[in-house]
Design goal:
749 residues; disordered C terminus; 9% strand; seven-stranded mixed sheet; AcylCoA_DH/ox_N_sf; Acyl-CoA_dehydrogenase; Butyryl-CoA Dehydrogenase, subunit A, domain 2; alpha+beta; 30 helices; 4 domains; Butyryl-Coa Dehydrogenase, subunit A, domain 1; two-stranded antiparallel ribbon; flavoprotein; Butyryl-CoA Dehydrogenase, subunit A, domain 3; flavin adenine dinucleotide binding; 58% helix
C-alpha cells in the first residue's frame, strides 16, 4: 500500500465549503513569514498608498460635512438615524466607494475606503457601520465580480446613487459560523413571473443579524438549492447560491430590528416562505447555482481587511487622543495624572498599540490596493486590530475612570466602548477567526507544497501516487531546510540578517527573522505529527497563527516607521513599544505552543530546533513605559499623525479636551512660574486657582497678560475635567450652569 493511500484512509475528508474557503483569496507577504524567511525587501517595495485628489476632496467636503451633521449622543438616545443623514449618505455616494465610476460609483482605493470609514467611526459607530456594509461584503461586491451585464447595468447605478439600499443575508438562527449548514432552502420549479411561466426557485428563509435589513430596498440572499424533479440535471443538491431580491417582490419580509448594544445602526431580520423567484434573480444567472459559497469567500477577504479593522483603529485613535489630553490636564496631588506610574503603564500601552494599529491599517490597505485579496492577512487584520482596539479602549476607560462612565455629549469614549463588541462579533466571530482561520488557512495557502499534497491524497487519478511522491520529497527537503535555518538563527545570532539602514530598526528586524525561522519547523512538525487532527487542536493552531500575526504586525510597524514617520526621534518610543510588544507576544505564543504540544518526543525536538528551553519571555522595561507615556502627552507631529482620524467638531468632547490640552502647553512655563511662587510664599487660604492667581498678580509675580492667559487656560481646564450632568428628570444641564457652580465653590486647580 502506498504512503498516499495510507494517508487517504487516515486523513479526514475536506468538505466542499472547506475546500472553497481554502482555495479563496491570494497569498501575499504572509507566506514568507510562514516559510521562515520574511521578505523585507518586498515589504519595503510596496507602493505607498496616498489619497488621490478626488479622495482628499471627498474627505475635505462630504466627510467633513457629514461629521458636522452627526450628534452621536442624540443618535444613541433616539430610535432612528435621521432621514437627512441617510439622504446625505445616498446623495453623496457614501454607499458606492467600491463601485466603478462607469456605474456612477466613486471607485476609491482600499486605503481611502479605510480612511473614510475610520474617520466616521471615530465620530459615530452607527454611521460608520451604515457606510461600511454596502462597501464590504454585499450585493455591490458580488455584482461587480459575478453579476451578468444586465444585472450590473441595472443595479450598480441604483446602488451607487442611493436609490437602492442593499443588505446581504447569510446568517441563520441555526447556522452562523458554519455557513455550510444553513437550512434556508430553494427548490427548482416552475412558476409565474410577470405573467409568464418561467423556470425558477421557490425559496424559504429565516435570517438574523442582517445589517441594513430594516431599511434595505434590495436583499442579497444565500440559500441552498435542491432539484428533486431534476429540472436542471441529475443532481439533487446543487449547493449554496446567492440571489438578489427587491424588497417589493411578493413574499419578501424586511423590517424588524435588533438592538445591538444600543448602537443605532439598522440591523435586523428577513424572512420568506415559499417565495418564487425567476432564475434572473440569481447573481450571475442560472450558471452560478451552487457557486454561492465560493463567491462569498472570494469577496469576503477584501472587506474583512478594511471595514472592521478601520473601526478598531478609529477606536484606538479616539481613545488615545482623549486619554493623553485628559491625563495632561487632569491633576491630582498637584501633578498631572499622566505623571503617575500606574497611569503611565496604561498610557504607554495605549500609545504603542495605537502606533501598531495605524501601521497595520496602512500596510493591509496598501496590499489590497495592489489588487491582491490575501485571505490570511485580512483575517489577521480583522481579529487582531479589533482586539487591539478593545485593549486600548479598556485602558482608556481605566484611566478616565469616573469621567469615562458618565454618558453625555462630552464623553468621547462611551460610543466606541458600546460599539466595540459589534466589531469583535461580526464578519466571523473573533474566536473563530483566531482559532480556525488564521493558521488553518495559512498552513494550506502559505506552505509551498501542502495544498498540492492534500489534493493529491484525495485524488482518484491513476498518476496520483507518482505525483504525490515527488511533492513529498520536496516537502521533506523544505522541512529539513527550515530545521537547519531555525537552528542557525536560534543559536548563532550573527546569522540573523537585517536590510534596514536604521540601527534602531536592525535589532528588531533580526528578531523578526529569528522568530519566523522558529515558526517554520514548528508548523512542519505539528502537521507531520498531528496531521488532520491539528484542525481540531484549536488551542495549538491558534498559537501558531498568533506567531504569524504578531510578526505581520511587527513588519507593518517597521515599514510605517521607516516610510511614514517624518521625525523618527519623536516617534522612537512608540516604535520601540510596538515592536517589543509584538515580538514579546510572538515569543510567548511559541513558548505556550511547545509547552502544550501533546507528543513528548516532538516537544523535545521543538525545543532543540528553536532554542526554547525556558518559559521566560523578555518584557517591556519600566524606562520605556515612562518615556513613552511622557512622550504621548506632548503636542507634536507624532501625536497628530496617530490621531488624524479623529476630526474635531466645534463644541464636542474632543474639541473641549483639545483646547484645554493646547492651552496648558501654551502656558506650561507660566504654570511653573506660579507653582514656584506659591511654594515660596503660599496663598492662605487657597480658595481657588483664580483667587491665588489674582493675589500673585497683585504682588506683581505675574503680569496682567500672563494672568489673562492662565485664567483662559483654567476655564478650559475646568470644562475639560467636568462631566455631563442632568436634572432629576434626566434633562441635560448646560455646561455654563455647571461652571458657574464650580466658580462659586471652593475648588482648586
Amino acid at each position: 500500500m502506498s504512503i498516499r493511500t495510507s494517508l487517504k484512509k487516515v486523513l479526514p475528508p475536506i468538505s466542499i465549503t472547506e475546500q472553497e474557503a481554502l482555495d479563496a483569496g491570494d497569498v501575499w507577504i504572509e507566506s514568507s513569514i510562514y516559510q521562515g524567511k520574511p521578505d523585507m525587501q518586498a515589504l519595503r517595495d510596496i507602493p505607498q498608498a496616498k489619497l488621490s485628489a478626488d479622495e482628499q476632496a471627498f474627505m475635505d467636503g462630504p466627510v467633513t460635512e457629514l461629521l458636522n451633521m452627526i450628534d452621536d449622543f442624540e443618535l444613541g438616545n433616539g430610535k432612528h438615524i435621521p432621514q437627512e443623514v441617510l439622504d446625505f449618505l445616498g446623495k453623496n455616494r457614501f454607499f458606492s466607494m467600491i463601485i466603478p465610476k462607469k456605474f456612477g460609483g466613486l471607485e476609491f482605493s482600499p486605503y481611502a475606503n479605510s480612511t473614510i470609514v475610520a474617520t466616521i467611526a471615530a465620530k459615530s459607530g452607527a454611521i460608520a457601520v451604515t457606510v461600511m456594509v454596502p462597501n464590504s461584503l454585499g450585493p455591490g461586491e458580488l455584482l461587480m465580480h459575478y453579476g451578468t451585464n444586465e444585472q450590473q447595468d441595472y443595479w450598480l447605478p441604483r446602488l451607487a446613487d442611493g436609490r437602492d439600499i442593499p443588505c446581504f443575508a447569510l446568517t441563520s438562527p441555526e447556522a452562523g459560523s458554519d455557513a455550510g449548514a444553513i437550512p434556508d432552502a430553494a427548490i427548482v420549479t416552475k412558476g409565474e413571473y410577470n405573467g409568464e411561466e418561467v423556470l425558477g426557485l421557490r425559496v424559504s428563509w429565516d435570517k438574523r443579524y442582517i445589517t441594513l435589513a430594516p431599511i434595505a430596498t434590495v436583499l442579497g440572499l444565500a440559500f441552498k438549492v435542491f432539484d428533486p424533479d431534476q429540472l436542471l440535471g441529475d443532481k439533487l443538491e446543487l449547493g449554496i447560491t446567492c440571489a438578489l431580491l427587491p424588497k417589493s417582490h411578493p413574499g419578501v419580509e424586511l423590517g424588524n430590528r435588533h438592538d445591538p448594544m444600543g448602537v443605532r445602526f439598522y440591523n435586523g431580520t428577513t424572512r420568506g416562505q415559499d417565495v418564487f423567484i425567476p432564475m434572473d434573480f440569481i447573481i450571475g444567472g442560472q450558471k452560478n447555482i451552487g457557486r454561492g459559497w465560493q463567491m462569498l469567500v472570494s469577496c469576503l477577504g477584501a472587506g474583512r481587511g478594511i471595514s472592521l479593522p478601520a473601526m478598531g483603529v478609529a477606536t484606538a485613535q479616539s481613545a488615545f487622543k482623549g486619554t493623553v489630553e485628559y491625563s495632561f490636564v487632569r491633576e491630582q496631588f498637584g501633578l498631572p495624572i499622566g505623571r503617575f506610574e500606574g497611569i503611565q503603564e496604561k498610557m504607554a500601552d495605549i500609545a504603542g498599540k495605537t502606533f501598531l494599529l495605524e501601521a497595520m491599517r496602512v500596510l493591509t490597505t496598501e496590499g489590497l490596493g495592489l489588487g491582491v485579496k490575501p485571505s490570511v492577512v485580512t483575517a489577521i487584520a480583522k481579529y487582531h486590530m479589533t482586539e487591539l482596539g478593545r485593549d486600548v479602549m479598556n485602558s482608556a476607560m481605566d484611566i478616565q475612570a469616573g469621567k469615562a462612565i458618565q454618558r453625555g455629549p462630552q464623553n468621547t469614549l462611551a460610543g466606541g466602548y458600546a460599539a466595540l463588541p459589534i466589531a469583535i462579533t461580526v464578519e466571523g466571530a473573533n474566536i473563530l477567526t483566531r482559532n480556525l482561520m488564521i493558521f488553518g488557512q495559512g498552513a494550506m495557502r502559505c506552505h509551498p507544497y501542502l495544498k498540492d499534497m492534500v489534493d493529491l491524497i484525495h485524488s482518484n487519478e491513476s498518476s496520483a501516487d507518482a505525483e504525490f511522491n515527488k511533492v513529498l520529497r520536496k516537502t521533506v527537503g523544505f522541512s529539513v531546510k527550515n530545521a537547519f535555518r531555525s537552528l542557525g538563527k536560534g543559536y548563532l545570532p550573527f546569522l540573523r540578517e537585517s536590510e534596514s539602514a536604521l540601527p534602531e530598526v536592525r535589532k528588531y528586524e533580526k528578531r523578526v527573522n529569528s522568530i519566523s525561522a522558529k515558526l517554520a519547523p514548528l508548523a512542519d512538525l505539528s502537521l507531520a505529527v498531528l496531521g488532520g487532527d491539528l484542525k481540531k487542536a484549536e488551542l495549538l493552531s491558534a498559537r501558531l497563527g498568533d506567531v504569524m500575526s504578531y510578526l505581520y504586525g511587527a513588519m507593518a510597524a517597521i515599514r510605517f516607521y521607516e516610510q511614514r514617520i517624518e521625525d523618527r526621534k519623536l516617534a522612537l518610543p512608540y516604535f520601540e513599544y510596538a515592536m517589543q510588544w509584538s515580538l514579546q507576544q510572538a515569543d510567548q505564543a511559541i513558548v505556550n505552543f511547545i509547552n502544550n504540544f501533546p507528543n513528548t518526543a516532538t516537544r523535545g525536538l521543538m525545543r532543540l530546533l528553536t532554542n526554547t528551553y525556558t518559559n521566560s519571555v523578555a518584557g517591556i522595561s519600566d524606562d520605556l513605559v515612562r518615556e513613552l507615556s511622557i512622550a504621548s502627552m506632548q503636542d507634536n507631529s507624532v501625536k497628530e499623525q496617530l490621531t488624524h482620524l479623529v476630526r474635531v467638531t466645534p463644541g464636542d468632547g474632543n474639541d473641549i479636551n483639545e483646547q484645554a490640552f493646547k492651552a496648558k502647553h501654551a502656558v506650561a512655563h507660566l504654570l511653573g512660574k506660579v507653582q514656584k511662587a506659591l511654594r515660596k510664599e503660599p496663598v492662605v487660604p487657597f480658595i481657588s486657582f483664580e483667587h491665588a492667581l489674582n493675589k500673585l498678580q497683585e504682588k506683581g509675580v505675574v503680569t496682567a497678560d500672563e494672568a489673562a492667559k492662565l485664567h483662559d487656560y483654567n476655564e478650559k481646564r475646568k470644562l475639560a475635567v467636568r462631566v455631563d450632568e442632568y436634572t432629576f428628570d434626566m434633562e441635560l444641564v448646560p455646561a455654563s450652569q455647571t461652571l458657574k457652580a464650580i466658580d462659586g465653590g471652593q475648588n482648586a486647580a
